[in-house]
From TrEMBL:
The keyword Protease does not apply. It comes from Salipiger bermudensis (strain DSM 26914 / JCM 13377 / KCTC 12554 / HTCC2601) (Pelagibaca bermudensis). InterPro entries: ABC_transp_permease (IPR001851). The keyword Transmembrane helix applies. This is Ribose ABC transporter permease.
């Protein structure tokens, strides 16, 4: 009798702990996006069914994938308490440089590494100015973006450039029926997620974002991680720029401008806080699809682009509010 009573008493805390772990997994700050995405699909199927038809989704996925790649880059920067406002310039100049180098050399295989190398240099400069010179990230990246947009005008001569045929073919190609842009987006998400969650370097990266002073005291070379963050982000933006250029068939002067707010919105809606450290590129990728689908639903109602921007801003506000819902539920449960 006594043993049974003790076991039951001992099992209760274990059961509560298991329930708490399950609740933390299902209802954490990154899991809400999946419920929101499912709810948005249901809403679209009722109010705008044309948006979720296979043909419409097929045309939407490549742009959602490009947005997801930019959101991955923005996520790692925000995890380091930064914000990369040079996304439009980096994305645009990458598309233009790829097209120009490709036509000048006659080789897209040479244009890809050269473009990525230039983007890497842009990211390293941003990272050094932020981490070494200690300039506010938004100031540094805004200045970089202004320089890059000036370079865009110089490179393009004021007119769009036709994308190389090889890039256009690659951007429209499919792998086992899946758009190649989506395959690359999933690859970016998978690699960065595994590195940040499963490797020693990833754990140090999170530690630097959470508390740089404590990371320094622990002997972690924070300068290396902070600079690498902006370098990775620039590479993501450059890849997105090249894919976008190939998909639309030309390198325009405004290719990246329309991706800045949606990329930030995707990160925020995905649950990554601006306080640094915590973050999920998987949730940001899902949020990119959410934002793309939301934009299509708004356009299906005949709304102007300005309304779409208002909806994106509203999504950010709602996402920040929903993030505090688990705390509210726990408070109610304790009460």
């Amino acid at each position: 009798m006594t043993t049974t009573t003790l076991n039951k008493a001992g099992d209760a805390p274990a059961g509560n702990a298991g329930f708490a772990r399950l609740s933390a997994t299902l209802f954490n700050e990154f899991s809400w996006i999946w419920g929101g995405l499912f709810a948005l699909f249901l809403i679209c199927s009722v109010v705008a069914p044309g948006v979720v038809r296979p043909a419409a989704l097929s045309s939407l996925l490549p742009f959602a994938a490009i947005l997801a790649i930019t959101a991955v880059g923005m996520t790692v920067v925000i995890q380091q308490r930064g914000l990369d406002m040079s996304l439009p310039g980096t994305m645009t100049i990458a598309g233009l440089l790829f097209a120009k180098i490709g036509f000048m050399t006659g080789s897209t295989l040479l244009a890809v590494p050269l473009t990525l190398l230039i983007a890497l240099g842009i990211g390293i400069v941003n990272g050094l100015l932020v981490a070494k010179v200690n300039i506010t990230p938004i100031v540094v990246t805004l200045a970089t973006n202004a320089i890059l947009m000036g370079a865009v005008r110089a490179v393009s001569g004021g007119s769009p450039m036709t994308a190389p045929a090889e890039l256009a073919e690659f951007s429209h190609s499919k792998l086992f029926g899946v758009p190649m842009t989506l395959v690359l987006a999933l690859l970016f998400i998978l690699v960065i997620s595994v590195v940040t969650k499963r490797s020693i370097a990833g754990r140090r990266f999170v530690a630097v974002g959470q508390n740089p002073a404590a990371a320094t005291a622990a002997g972690i070379p924070i300068l290396r991680y902070q600079v690498a963050t902006y370098a990775v982000a620039a590479l993501c933006f450059a890849v997105a720029g090249m894919l976008f250029t190939g998909f639309i068939g030309s390198a325009s002067q405004t290719a990246g401008i329309d991706y800045l707010l949606p990329a930030i919105a995707a990160v925020v809606v995905g649950g990554t806080p601006f306080s640094g450290g915590r973050g999920s590129v998987i949730a940001s990728g899902a949020a990119a699809l959410f934002m793309a689908l939301l934009g299509q639903m708004v356009l299906a109602f005949g709304a102007e682009t300005s309304v779409q921007l208002l909806v994106q801003a509203g999504a950010i506000i709602v996402a920040v509010s929903v993030r505090h819902l688990p705390d509210l539920l726990r408070w109610i449960a304790r009460g």
